[in-house]
Amino acid sequence: MDLAYSQEHEAYRDEVRRFLENNKDKAPGSGSTAQDWQQLLIENGYAARTIPTEYGGAGQEPDILKSHILAEEFAHAKVPPGHSGDNRIVPVLLELGTEEQKQRFIGPTIRGEMQWCQGYSEPGSGSDLASLQTKAHVDGDDFVINGQKIWTSGAKTAHMMFCLVRTEPDAPKHQGISYLLIPMGTPGMDVRPLKQMTGDSFFNEVFFTDCRVPTTEIIGKRGEGWNVANATLKHERGGLGDPNQAESRFRDILELMKTETIDGQRLIDIPSFRDRAMALQARVLAMKFNGMRVLSHTIKGEEPGLPRWIVKLQGCELNHQTAALAIDVMGELGILYDESPYVRNHGMWQHRYMMDLGLIIGGGTAQIQKNIIGERALGLPKEPKFDKPI
Amino acid sequence: MEFMLSEEQRMLQESVVGYLESHCPLDRVRKAADAGETIANDVSDGLGELGIPGIVVPEDYGGVGLGFLEAALVAEALGGAVAPVPYSATSIMAPVAVLAGGSDRQRDEWLPKIASGETIVAVGVNEQVGRRESEGILASQDALSGKAMFVLEGMEADAYLIADSSGALHMIAGDAQGLERTKLKTIDRTRSVVEISLNATPAEVLANTTSSREPLLATIDAGRLMLAADTLGAAQAMLDQSVAYAKERRQFNRPIGSFQAVKHMCAEMAAELEPCRSLVWYAAHSVRAIPEEARLMICHAKAHLSEVGRFVARTATEVHGGMGFTDLLGLHYWFKRIGFNRQLLGAPELVREEAARVQGLVG
What is the CATH number of the domain that holds B300? Predict the structure, then answer.
């Protein structure tokens, strides 16, 4: 048990802090664009850290602690962190893409010029993703795609889609899928926004009618798409339920309870509210220390096991409960939304309460997470399967 | 940055767990319980040979001189085995009190015999945590009068460490004049609590506890941490038994663990319990490494483990179906151990209020 950082990492933290002090004014929102900010971060090695320089990255050695320090310091300074492009597609391109694909896609993606959306879920294929029905057949040098995707985040603004389609209809369901790269706006593709309970329209439906892409726009071989997709799902699940976010939201709620009043009394001074806040704080701390344990194993190259499997399930639930408490302590003020008189932060906590429920469902539902914990971590038997070709 | 157990800590854990697995199986626990004993002397002696009674006593006083994380690992192992062995009071709270509140002479007198296991010291601080029916203990000169309820490990004790109404701590010999001991029957048959009634009973105050409450608070902290760790071990044992049962028990031609209804109960227990381990580790580590955080972390560990412990105890019982409700399986020994730990030294709401006070949130 040693919670101190090495001299090298302490020095790195100082360096990052100095950089943030000197360059905070260049962060997006205050005159500069997100892309300029990202470019500055890449040049200083604070974004796209481990992406090789030949693809436009900072080309540094992987160092989990340095990434962790970066995340902490940027969060502390309340400055948008850099990114490594899209953490779903870039790792896949690096691992499985052809040299030509890496050259063409990685640079623009990490610079923020090229945005991606994910074409996985379908109306009939959610938790059972491998049953997907969107089809592609080969005609000359092209795949011809027909079918429908749903829950496609950011499809309105994205430039490219990575997409799972069934190319081998006679193979068992996991072996008939290919992983295709499709430019948004290709003829035969129709994007329709899907309005959410929050009032936003971040998700979309995407319809394909004889939509053509060259047969070279594939990652891996035909029929190998399921394995390629699993690599990306791993990356996406890893990010949901981040304990740093839960901790920062807990700080927000304490601040709220110290400033808002009811009958002239601070909310924190009401014992029943205070008790709920303390119960929540214990959960936030437990998940924070669980995160430190995951990190410690990861640094050593060890598989953390159960402490990692539970992060998505517990972390998303914790965020949802934090929002719920904020709404409850605000009483009637808690229902105000958007631009209403008396609204606090544009109804941020109601928005989070709904969004966090979305995240409990998205990225592998809570029930799928429990299957994963039960089967992979506890070794319980799977449900009997009745898979057959589709 | 390394938030994990060291090689030495894992070895300690393995040796205590290993010892209890071979010397304190459920049959041994039952035998003690059926005889109305809250101490299995052979197990207690065996742990004594491993140095457990002196785990936090400095080497200068004949102890092992380890820290609170090691002490918590032992408590976790004892909870896991529902071991009928005095530990939290005599091996942890009493030495903490003597170290923090005793004079040099008192340390010399008490610590070696606590560390060797020769003397078992029960601890009664309940009136300083939350006084119920007892009128508390009044000190006058070198004598005490009054009643102390819920004195932990009282049936096994050779001496009693009792807080008076001002928070000062006193050592009282087991055979002192005017001392009466009444066993309180609890749900948990693996540990004892007693009521001590004193009538002008001679006692010796720990020298530095009349001017400062800190030794008392450190003693309560240490006890709460041990109860939290004990619950961690007991809850983990219930989860492990549930998983094993769900793999083995078949209905509708399938192991019941292949049904999501049962699988998800197991997954929820694991998901709730696993972060508790990190919380207990951090709280234990903080006692010496980050003392300014320790009281807050211990309050959270005590309260949160009580809540998660209760959830695991009832869910694990449900996974076992009707068998979980019987004495046959013995699952209730863990259920009751967890229930005991929850109530002692402050139930969750009370301890959470203290967590709020510690961080200045109580106006």
Answer: 1.20.140.10
Residue from B240, B260, B274 whose CB has the most chain A CBs within 10 Å, to mutate: B274
Q: Domains in chain B: how many in total?
A: 3
Phi, psi (deg, nearest 5) at residue B344? -75, 145
Q: Is residue B159 part of a domain?
A: yes
Chain A touched by B6 (CB under 8 Å): yes
Decide if A88 is inside a domain: no
Do A282 and B279 make contact, defined as CB atoms within 8 angstroms? yes
Q: Does B273 share its domain with B182?
A: no
Q: φ, ψ for residue B163 (rounded to 5)?
A: -85, 135
Q: Which residues contact B103 (CB under 8 A, 6 or more apart)?
A: B206, B207, B208
Indicate whether B2 belongs to any domain. Answer: no
Per DSSP bridges, beta strands B159-163 and B121-124 are parallel
Greatest alpha-carbon pair distance for chain A in Å reads: 75
Whether A287 sits inside 8 A of B263 (CB atoms) is: no
Is the Cβ–Cβ distance between B232 and B276 less than 8 Å? yes
Say how far apart CA B319 and CA B239 lie, in whole Å: 9
Minimum Cα–Cα distance from A292: chain B residue: B3
CB contact (8 A) between residue B266 and residue A378? yes
At A331-371, the pLDDT tens digits run: 999 999 999 999 998 999 999 999 999 999 988 899 999 99
For residue range A182-222, list pLDDT tens digits in order: 999 999 999 999 999 999 998 999 999 999 999 999 999 99
Give the domain CATH number at B32.
1.10.540.10
Q: In this predicted structure, what is the pLDDT of residue A274? A: 98
The range of the structural domain enclosing residue B164 comes to: 121-209
In the block, tokens 């962060």 appear at A27
Instruction: Give yes or no for a contact between A334 and B42, defined as CB atoms under 8 angstroms apart.
Output: no
Phi, psi of B139 (to 5 degrees): -105, 135
A156 and A212 co-located in one domain: yes
Rg of the Cα atoms in chain B:
20
Dist CA B172 CA B201 (whole Å): 8
Q: Could you tell me if residue A387 is inside a domain?
A: no
In B181-210, the residues whose Cβ lies within 8 Å of chain A are none
**Interface predicted TM-score (ipTM) of this complex, two decimals:** 0.97
The answer to whether position B363 is within a domain reads no
The string over B319-328, giving b where at least 16 C-beta atoms fall within 10 Å of a residue's C-beta and e elsewhere, is bbeeebeeee
DSSP state of A2: B
A vs B, Cβ pairs < 8 A, gives 163
Q: Which of A292, A375, A379 sits opposite B3 (nearest CB)?
A: A292
- Full domain range(s) for residue A137: 116-224
